Amino acid sequence: MRILVVEDMPDIAKAIAQRFEKIGHAVDCETNGRTASEVLLVQDYDLIILDMMLPGADGFEILKGLRARKDKTPVLVLTARSAVDDRVDVLDLGADDYLTKPFDFRELEARARALLRRSAGMSDNALRFGDLVIDQAGRTASIAGTALDLTRRELIVLEILAARPKRFISKEELVEQLFNFDQEPSANAVEQYVTRLRRKLADTTIEIRTTRGLGYQLAIK
């Protein structure tokens, strides 16, 4: 999914982005709180990873602004403050979870998965649609027990469609989910991913349908 990392230490921000990009997420990074607030007014995200001590505007201000305008995007706070009162404050402001620095990246990924599951109404890491099962922790997919040989981007496209089976997903939405600000968004690349996925799903019970003007939809044959 698309994630915003707001962290003023470039090495930490880069390391977080690399971890999530490696498993297929699109990640944008901001080091200034004021700039991050402006980005959040024009770009939607599935998850925000937010440091509290920032130049421009601190994490408390960003969090207050989000919740004041009824933005329900899950927020995972990173904080160097370990006092109970500090953790209570960020949760009361509307944070969904917090992680104290220094942290283990495996725990960061696990907490992010938990928040994404919760926002999608899922009880575990398995995303299911008909015979299709996507293990979001293991980053694998299978149909009727047979593993699918998918690239990272193909898996993300399939995951996006499977998470919204009753919705048509436009090409523009897929571009938003697959590419961050530093990458060249490409509608042609999305078409290529869908074409390759259709080829790999050809002999299964799952298919990707296209409706002109609406987009793509995952369906059971």
Tell me about this structure:
- The chain is of the alpha/beta class.
- 43% of the residues lie in helices and 23% in strands.
- The protein is built from eight helices and eleven strands.
- The protein has a five-stranded parallel β-sheet, with helices on both faces. Strands 6-7-8-9 form a four-stranded antiparallel β-sheet, covered by helices on one side.
- β7 and β8 form a beta hairpin.
- α2 packs parallel to α3 and α6 crosses α8.
- The chain starts with a strand and ends with a strand.
Index terms:
elongated; 11 strands; about 45% helix; alpha/beta; 4-stranded antiparallel β-sheet; 5-stranded parallel β-sheet
List the helices and strands and how they pair.
Layout: E1 2-6, H1 10-22, E2 26-30, H2 33-42, E3 47-51, H3 59-68, E4 75-79, H4 84-93, E5 97-100, H5 105-120, E6 126-129, E7 132-135, E8 140-143, E9 146-147, H6 152-163, H7 171-178, H8 187-201, E10 206-211, E11 215-220
Parallel strand pairs: 1-2, 1-3, 3-4, 4-5
Antiparallel strand pairs: 6-7, 7-8, 8-9, 10-11
Helix pairs in contact: 2-3, 6-8
